[in-house]
Amino acid sequence: MRKIFGWKLVLLLTVVAVLTSVLVFWQQPRPLQATMVADSESGTKVLVLNYHKIDYTFISLAVRPEDFENQMKYLRDNGYHTITPDELYDALAGNGQLPENPVMITFDDGYEDNYNNAYPILKKYGFKATIFVVTGFLDRHKKGYLSWDQAREMNKNGINIESHTVNHRSMTDLTDDELRAELVDSKKKAETELGHAVNYIAYPTGTYNLHIAQMVKEAGYKAAFTIKYGNVDKASNIFALERVPIFHTEDTNKDFVERIRYQPIFESFGWMKN
């Protein structure tokens, strides 16, 4: 009994020591570059931020404009460089080089506040971004969404416009015919309105499976983004790319810094991703 108790005590002390080391590590000031790490197998880990609304709506998905500006300033001051979906795709395929500390800024749904509030801030900092729009909502379906004129203006000035399906229905609830229509029709509509190929999609509500991913590929998309929490690297599924969601919280900017700083630490311990 004494021998068993001794082993339990050693195990307990080991666990406490490990947790203490992690907590101390978290509390140390660290350069933001620590969030971008690389290893020989998966290469650079790319941070893909996921926003929705940039306004004063009292919901978690709505980041206040002043908080969004603070976050963009933080990225600029700490040496981040924004990239496009094509740049990310080419790098994952081994056909392109990413800048130091790459970050992809994405928005889901296509709210009008992306144009009114986020777009001027992105222009101020010279940042690229990507908006996944629900094509059936633009212009006519609901108030509060972008017009195609606004989408075209942004698209000509560093903001990629990509697909978020036609009606924002959860893909796992659809028949194959319904799913195919959502994928193909949204792509065609956006391409007609924008005048160029639309190659990327974000899954509405984040729901998908391998069958859906195959249909996305068959519809002509090069990659798809989820709401799965994590950084993107060469080990990622190109049709299930990870993102880091940004929310309004009691301390939005502190939580923003912690999310982008500690995410790779979680992955290095094997706590997240795959």
UniProtKB/TrEMBL annotation:
<dbReference type="InterPro" id="IPR051398">
    <property type="entry name" value="Polysacch_Deacetylase"/>
</dbReference>
<dbReference type="InterPro" id="IPR011330">
    <property type="entry name" value="Glyco_hydro/deAcase_b/a-brl"/>
</dbReference>
<dbReference type="GO" id="GO:0005975">
    <property type="term" value="P:carbohydrate metabolic process"/>
</dbReference>
<protein>
    <submittedName>
        <fullName>Polysaccharide deacetylase</fullName>
    </submittedName>
</protein>
<dbReference type="GO" id="GO:0005576">
    <property type="term" value="C:extracellular region"/>
</dbReference>
<dbReference type="Pfam" id="PF01522">
    <property type="entry name" value="Polysacc_deac_1"/>
</dbReference>
<dbReference type="InterPro" id="IPR002509">
    <property type="entry name" value="NODB_dom"/>
</dbReference>
<keyword id="KW-0732">Signal</keyword>
<dbReference type="GO" id="GO:0016810">
    <property type="term" value="F:hydrolase activity, acting on carbon-nitrogen (but not peptide) bonds"/>
</dbReference>
<feature type="domain" description="NodB homology">
    <location>
        <begin position="101"/>
        <end position="274"/>
    </location>
</feature>
